[in-house]
Specification:
The protein is of the alpha/beta class. The chain is built from 11 helices and 16 strands. A hairpin with a 3-residue loop joins strand 7 (128-132) and strand 8 (136-139). It binds (2E)-Hexenoyl-CoA. (2E)-Hexenoyl-CoA binds at residues 67-68, 70, 165-166, 169-174, 212, 214-216, 240-241, 244, 246, 248-249, 360-361, 364.
């Protein structure tokens, strides 16, 4: 739809119609899907797993980037590639976004070292199991120095933490802290791209929020058409940027206003509020609460209702509702990047981010 929206500025509303009729996947032949396991297409990348059920036309995209599904440049790039692939796949009409509820990420790596040579393994999150022909060791630190015999082949097996408490912790703060202006600009462009692709998607999109969803995680959720959240007192959702001393850009704000209305958005943004699930439901930040173990099945049931509406009618309506908001960013993209870079690289903002990171770590300790 992003393309359709872009073109529609040129062609007017009838242009949207004709564009959509070209892009419409099923027109009026909308069959209420049953969620069988037939013809399943799978795609797994390190941080994201996608299962597309061709019999229903519904894809489930699971974020699986420990420890908290933070949105790094790599993550966002993978996310956008997956979204684009699904968007181009005519058999895919609906997308559910969720986090893996219990996650076991296995990674193997090999290395050759000489006697007494100390190898530092950086990229491990605990618990970690390091296995070699002569060594078997468990580390709880995630950062270990091991001494190995001559030319031994090391097999590193990583079993990561579960992600059961988090949908997404939002933008990866490490991407905004201590980075060059060029890198910050590249990162911000990827954040824009994620939102443009999601908010303008032709697919019906549902966020199955099975964990906390602050800041960028909330943006991803409100970028979808519908939100179902686990009714768990530990989870919260909201655009809490001001709590970090940073400012949510206009298109975060616009998306929130479009979701909860001006007054609730004003309170929410200025105070950087994180809402409990019931409070999020009360202001309309999420549409439905369900027990945690029913989040995905409810999303699938709900999706069948969305897909019972003829695609072209739903897409044109979505376009009418979102086009203005999307166009606003499209016509200010470069200025928005420049603005973000000059803001985020300021000493005072960097200090705020460092304090926030320290707070996160001390809270953990
Ligand atoms: C203009 C810009 C707009 C900005 C938009 C944004 O999205 S700004 C983003 C706003 N986002 C927020 O304000 C959310 C901040 N995060 C949280 O509130 C909590 O982490 C949680 C509730 C998501 C999960 O609680 P939990 O008890 O399950 O987990 P835990 O707390 O123990 O964390 C585990 C590890 O992950 C680390 N880490 C965490 N988040 C981030 C991050 N975004 N990035 C990077 N790292 C992050 C944390 O430091 C810790 O590292 P350590 O010590 O192991 O090296």
């Amino acid at each position: 739809m992003a393309n359709v929206l872009r073109n529609s500025a040129k062609f007017g509303f009838s242009g949207v119609l004709s564009q959509l009729s070209i892009h419409s996947r099923h027109g009026r032949e909308c069959v209420s899907p049953c969620f069988s396991l037939q013809q399943r297409n799978n795609s797994t990348s390190p941080k994201i797993k996608v299962d597309l059920d061709n019999s229903t036309g519904v894809a489930v995209l699971r974020m699986q980037s420990p420890p908290v599904n933070s949105l790094s440049l790599d993550f966002l790039t993978e996310f956008c590639i997956n979204l684009e692939k699904l968007e181009m796949d005519k058999s895919c009409r609906g997308l559910i976004i969720t986090s893996v509820s219990t996650h076991t990420h296995t990674h193997t790596d090999t290395d050759t070292v000489t006697q007494s040579h100390k190898t530092m393994i950086h990229t491990i999150t605990p618990p970690v199991c390091v296995v070699s022909q002569t060594l078997s060791k468990v580390s709880s630190t995630g950062l270990d120095i091991i001494t190995l015999p001559v030319c031994v082949c090391v097999c590193v097996c990583l079993v990561s933490q579960t992600l059961s408490k988090v949908f997404s912790a939002g933008l990866d703060i490490m991407e905004m802290y201590g980075k060059s202006p060029e890198r910050c600009g590249e990162f911000w462009k990827a954040v824009q791209e994620m939102w443009l692709k999601l908010y303008g998607s032709n697919m019906a999109t549902i966020a199955a929020i099975n964990g906390s969803s602050p800041a960028g995680g909330c943006l991803m959720s409100i970028g979808c058409d519908y939100r179902i959240m686990a009714d768990n007192p530990r989870y919260s959702i909201g655009l809490n940027e001001t709590q970090l001393g940073i400012v949510a850009p206009f298109w975060f704000k616009d998306t929130l206003v479009n979701t909860v209305g001006n007054r609730a958005a004003e309170l929410s943004l200025e105070l950087g509020l994180l809402y409990s699930a019931p409070d999020a439901l009360k202001i309309g930040l999420v549409d439905q609460l369900v027990p945690e173990d029913q989040v995905l099945s409810t999303a699938q049931d709900t999706m069948s209702k969305w897909l019972a509406v003829p695609d072209h009618a739903r897409q044109i309506t979505k376009s009418m509702m979102r086009k203005q908001t999307i166009d606003k960013l499209l016509s200010n993209r470069e200025a928005d990047i420049t603005n973000f870079v000059s803001f985020i690289t300021k000493d005072s903002i960097q200090r705020s981010l460092r304090m926030y990171l320290e707070m996160l770590k001390s809270r953990k300790a």
